[in-house]
Amino acid sequence: MKNSSGTSSSHAAASGVLGVLMALALGGCGRKEKAFSLGEGVEVAASKEASVLGEVSEKAPAGSQAERESSALLEEAIAVFASGAPSQRERERARALLAEVIRAEDNPVADFYFAECLRPEADSDPNIAVEMYERYHKAAVGKVPEAAFRVGVCLEAGQGAPRDLVQAMNWHRLAAEEGVVPAQLALAHAYHKGLGVPQSDLAAFTWLFLGGGLSDPSVLELREEIVAGLKPEQMRAAIDTASAFVNYQVVFKYE
Is 78 in a helix, a strand, or coil? Predict the structure, then answer.
């Protein structure tokens, strides 16, 4: 009879080192002049002059009257989403404001929030789903990270565009590299299952760590599955990679 206690002991040992590894990672890491990978085909360019966490940019000077009006309309529309669950009436108001902004200028942020206004209706109306996807895509090309994640979600589900797991994960990766946590966790799941990317629990663990998944109870099952397939030294290497990631500037390529 096969002894199951060995498997359980191995799993417990792997889980037990997580606290130690996280402590090492949270202790900080020095900048290293090298490139690193977050999974097969995921190449990251490093620079010690900048951080993926971002830099404070100089405040832009005031523009024309039309630009100031568009900015005010955009702020008013975005404020509708502050509650997290705007009513249909609020979404319609925001949509009208955003339409004015979009008519006046090319604004990726306005495109993103316009798509957000459409999202509750997209499940029941294929035409709205297509418009939502197109708005998200335009915003993503305009380098709105959350839009890149939403494009990935649409392609993963085949909503508004043909289902394409490979392209979905490419867009998730763009968002994940900009720090969008749901995209990082989506990549962790994808690498663990081999969905649109080569199966790799090492890459899955790296993205899981970056997305805060080692302490997030909502991804407990995924975390346990990934950890069960890794040795402690592999997890340490993954955390080193993830820790280095946040100390380098990432070169993003939007298509």
Answer: helix
Alpha carbon 114 to chain centroid distance? Answer: 19
Q: What is the pLDDT of residue 242?
A: 82
Judge whether 55 and 42 are in contact, CB under 8 Å. no
- Predicted TM-score (pTM) of this structure: 0.74
Angle among Cα 124, 125, 128 to the nearest 5 degrees reads: 130
Name residue 92's amino acid. E
Task: Supply 222's token pair.
Answer: 């995924």
Neighbours of 167 (CB within 10 A): 17
Tens of pLDDT, residues 22-48: 443 433 333 333 333 444 433 333 332
Residue identified by tokens 């993103």 is 112
- What is residue 73's three-state secondary structure? helix
Which residue did the predictor score with more confidence, 27 or 148?
A: 148
* Cβ(136)–Cβ(147) below 8 Å: yes
Tokens encoding 168: 């979905």
Contact 110, 101 (CB under 8 A): yes
- Using only C-alpha atoms, what is the Rg of the chain? 21
pLDDT by residue (tens digit) across 150-190?
A: 999 999 999 999 999 999 999 999 999 999 999 999 999 99
Distances, alpha carbon 185 to alpha carbons 2, 26, 123, 149, 188, in Å: 34, 19, 23, 11, 5
